[in-house]
Design goal:
Layout lengths: L2 E7 L3 E8 L5 E8 L5 E2 L2 H13 L6 E8 L5 E3 L9 E2 L7 H11 L4 H12 L8 H11 L1 H6 L2 E3 L1 H9 L9 E3 H4 L5 E2 L4 E2 L1 H7 L9 E3 L6 E2 L6 E2 L3 E2 H8 L6 E6 L3 E5 L13 E4 L5 E7 L3 H11 L3 H10 L8 E3 L16 E3 L8 H25 L6 E5 L6 H11 L3 E3 L5 H15 L13 E3 L5 H10 L7
Parallel strand pairs: 1-5, 5-14, 5-15, 9-12, 16-22, 22-23
Antiparallel strand pairs: 1-2, 2-3, 4-7, 6-8, 10-11, 13-14, 16-17, 17-19, 18-19, 20-21, 23-24
Helix pairs in contact: 2-3, 2-4, 4-8, 9-14, 10-12, 11-12, 11-13, 12-13
Amino acid sequence: MTLVAGVDTSTQACKVVVRDAGTGALVRSGRAPHPPGTEVAPQAWEDAFRAAATEAGGLDDVAAVAVGGQQHGMVCLDERGEVVRDALLWNDVRSAPAAADLIRELGDGDEAAGRQAWADAVGVVPVASFTAAKLRWLADAEPGNADRTAAVCLPHDWLTWRLSADRELGTLVTDRGDASGTAYWSARTGEYRLDLLERALRGRRPAVPRVAGPAERVGALAGSGAVLGPGTGDNAAAALGLAARPGDVVVSIGTSGVVSAVTATAVADVTGTVAGFADATGNHLPLVATLNAARVLDAAAALLGVDHATLSELALSAPSGADGLVLVPYLEGERTPNLPDATGSVHGLTLRTSTPAHWARAAVEGLLCGLADGIAAVVAQGVTVERVLLVGGAARSAAVQQLAPGIFGRPVLVPPPGEYVADGAARQAAWVLSGDAAAPEWPQPGLQEFDAPAATHVRERYAEVRGRTDGQ
């Protein structure tokens, strides 16, 4: 049996899975935590990887390894390859004003023109999470560190490089999926826009990783000599782990909500709602992210004083549409739509709808309607969506599973809980090892399918009241 390993160097932890390259069967796994915060010393990622790999029984018998990881972040290296400062992670928001500045500057002071220019150039419009915005923050807040930066890379790039037997600065490598979240690489053209990188750093132009092909061998693991794959960003790795194909949209309901669709179509959304990312196979992965997802159900359960299983039972006992009761779940502001100061709102509260069942139903339907808006935004960019792959903690809710097909208007498939980012990295490792034209087909046992008539009345009622909230 030939073994491969996939690594997920996520925001919170490092996960390592070892799988059979031929069948995808899980052989063993390990996990180690990352430090909290939005600013982290990259060495913590390597330390966590080594701890997780040890817990997984070591990698000496593994033939190939690939790394999936948290997207965007900023890792700056000096000319000796030493880290210049702690990495800023995707969720560090100090770069929000810098993103706004970059938009205005590219539009010569006109925000609308700037958004169009960024969308045309790289398929995304800068927000705080993207690497370009973090580099502009660095140039303005820490010019000395910006001067010392000889190369800039992403978290998964850095860990792949640290695991490699060749650690020369010029051997840094990335892939299309992760590079497309920097805001200075275009998924449409397949090229860096180094002028935009230089703009972000106010005239400085550090080296950037080479963008490898989806199944390219990029090096060897130090010590064992196992083949290294290029790796990718977490959303692209998850899509690969789920074997998502063109026509599929992956909806992840965790702390945040993510809608990402596999397509051959390059997307450039001037509004910035849909980010024009690439996937890990050579296709594209347009993506919408929301702030309010699983915690909407947490809040509803806490308010009603019930556990999640009871919340689900209550929701399923109420009528579709909750007799007009609607929760617009902007409980933490919202990213999509871009309403950072918005609050949640409740509409249609009457004596009839003042029951735990109605409230539970409104919470589930409001959560799903927000994600359905994300699917609609992707479709509006010309992307075909035929079915939904539903993952994340809240995907285990029976109410979410049963109500999602009607609200999304498409069949919903729910795989068993798993480490899909690490699994996708393992599948890439097997692909790199095989040298085949396509990634290996691994069985997906335990996949459940749900379908229901389209609940257009729920979507229409939600759309009626969506804009009636504070902070609009």
